[in-house]
Design a protein that fits this description.
Number of domains: 2
CATH class of the largest domain: Alpha Beta
Number of strands: 6
Radius of gyration: 20 Å
Order of helices and strands: EHEHEHEHEHEHH
Distance between the termini: 67 Å
Helix content: 25-40%
Structural class: alpha/beta
CATH topology of the largest domain: Rossmann fold
Oligomer: single chain
Shape: globular
CATH superfamily of the largest domain: NAD(P)-binding Rossmann-like Domain
Number of helices: 7
Strand order of the largest sheet: 3-2-1-4-5-6
Largest sheet: 6 strands, parallel
Length: 170
């Protein structure tokens, strides 16, 4: 199978859908893996890391999509990516279709087979692809909340009433 990993183009998205280790696993099983030049940089992976794993680096995004059978992404495709999809493609990514009617319509019009990470279930009905992301989000919630309480972010500068009382000598 010809697998393509494009660079994420959604604003502030730095992840990549496949690590060099994943690329090594796929190429070792006979698949062809093409990674868009620079796709892994935001996640700390260099093009050379992918090349050492057996993947090819494709600088031309149009060629990457045209030559792919399976496209691996992190986030839902942006309009210019939806326009590249054809019936010959299978797209595997987060889709969030309930909130995006135009995305749903565009994917249907493309004729591509689209599989959403958030819909994959295991034998017990659990969502194994969402579980790691939920764990990370839960752990980060405390940091995000504390950041929002900083004075520079418009917060009160204290994290709770108990701290406010302590600061006031109560």
């Amino acid at each position: 199978m010809k697998i393509a990993v494009p660079k994420e183009i959604k604003n502030h998205e730095y992840r990549v859908a496949l690590t060099p280790t994943g690329a090594r696993e796929l190429t070792g099983r006979g698949h062809t893996v093409s990674v868009q030049a620079g796709a892994g940089e935001g996640a700390g992976f260099q093009d050379g890391d992918y090349q050492q794993a057996g993947a090819t680096i494709e600088p031309n995004v149009d060629a990457l999509w045209q030559n792919a059978e399976l496209i691996l992404k992190v986030k839902e495709p942006q309009p210019e990516e939806v326009a590249r999809l054809t019936p010959a493609h299978t797209l595997f990514t987060c889709l969030h279709l309930a909130a995006e009617k135009s995305l749903t319509q565009g994917l249907m019009k493309s004729g591509a087979t689209c599989i959403a990470y958030e819909t994959i279930t295991d034998a017990k009905g659990a969502l194994p692809l969402l579980a790691p992301m939920s764990t990370v989000a839960g752990r980060m919630a405390v940091q995000a909340g504390a950041h929002s309480l900083e004075k520079a972010q418009g917060g009160s500068g204290v994290c709770c009433r108990a701290c406010r009382g302590w600061r006031q000598g109560v």
